[in-house]
Specification:
Blueprint lengths: L1 H26 L6 H22 L4 H6 L4 H20 L6 H15 L6 H31 L5 H35 L8 H19 L2 H10 L5 H20 L6 H14 L8 H31 L1
């Protein structure tokens, strides 16, 4: 019972920081589009809840491949929380999926537990292939929208605004299904008090309110202003491409980094335009954070496991 309560509190804390980090990623492109920021917040919350409830269970495949006891889950969430907090501090989105997965690998190595090699290989390949698909899709969609746009002027702009809000809903849906689905896949089986179907959606709502109020601003600023001055066409293209990639991964039960795919898709949309205002230095820093979080997640979880096991 004590461990279950700790796990619930730690899950809430993790999702608060995750909301600040990843919802900041979803709302970041709207930083310079004030009219859409508040409407997007409501749609994002709706999408996150629907995705987690309707399709989050598909990430149970991960738990089947890497079965963790409650003690291991607590360690993984603790180390992931530390990494996401560091990402918020430096205004850089950190992938919770990658942090959790690398943490699970760290515990498996530290405890000398066999892992599912086939599933592991698929995970690694997906981290390489899917972002490449995302950047290609985003560039193609952006080119098509610009090349074959049917309306002009304010009518076109209004249609683009409505489309961007719709793609935000879809993107938040796959965020709930894939990222929160991964968290719940490892948390729910280890809750000894039951009621996970009530507790976990409640945690989503509370964490969203706290995270979006206190933790999203820094990441939003970093994405909204440091990658490039995004327009609605680029926003629609990148979000649509990211949705396709993550929804495909969710159907396969593969957790994929939303921050990585979305950021690279934003780059693809920008590259398809004549005017490119890309902050290469910022993207290079984000790449270092992704790689660093993968390594640190592994080392931190393994160290915590060894430290608490043998002391």
């Amino acid at each position: 019972m004590i461990y279950s309560i700790i796990l619930i509190l730690l899950t809430l804390n993790t999702l608060v920081l995750l909301t600040g980090n990843n919802i900041g990623t979803l709302r970041g492109p709207y930083r310079s589009l004030t009219q859409l920021r508040y409407a997007s917040s409501i749609l994002i919350l709706l999408g996150v809840i629907l995705g987690a409830v309707l399709e989050g269970w598909k990430l149970n495949k991960f738990y089947t491949a890497y079965t963790l006891d409650i003690y291991g889950v607590i360690i993984v969430l603790l180390s992931s929380t530390i990494l996401v907090a560091l990402g918020n501090m430096y205004r850089t989105p950190v992938s919770l999926n990658m942090s959790i997965i690398s943490g699970v690998w760290g515990i498996a190595v530290a405890s000398q537990t066999p892992i599912d090699l086939e599933y592991t290989l698929i995970l690694i390949l997906s981290w390489i292939i899917l972002p490449l698909i995302g950047i290609t899709l985003s560039a193609v969609i952006s080119y098509i929208l610009v090349r074959y746009r049917l309306t002009r002027g304010w009518g076109s702009y209004s249609l683009e605004k409505a489309s961007s809000l719709l793609t935000s809903l879809f993107l938040s849906y796959v965020f709930g299904a894939n990222t929160l689905g991964l968290v719940f896949a490892i948390v729910a089986p280890n809750l000894e008090i039951g009621l996970e179907n009530v507790i976990l959606p409640s945690i989503i709502l509370v964490s969203y309110i706290i995270g979006i109020k206190y933790f999203t601003a820094r990441v939003e600023t970093g994405l909204g202003y440091n990658i490039y001055n995004i327009g609605l066409i680029s926003l629609i293209s990148s979000q649509t491409a990211t949705f396709i990639v993550l929804e495909t991964a969710t159907q396969l039960g593969i957790p994929v980094s939303l921050t990585q795919v979305l950021t690279i898709s934003l780059l693809g949309a920008s590259l398809s335009r004549e005017l490119k205002l890309i902050n290469i230095e910022y993207i290079a820093r984000m790449s270092k954070v992704w790689i660093g979080s993968l390594i640190l997640g592994f080392l931190l979880s393994a160290s915590l496991y060894l430290l608490t096991t043998y002391l």
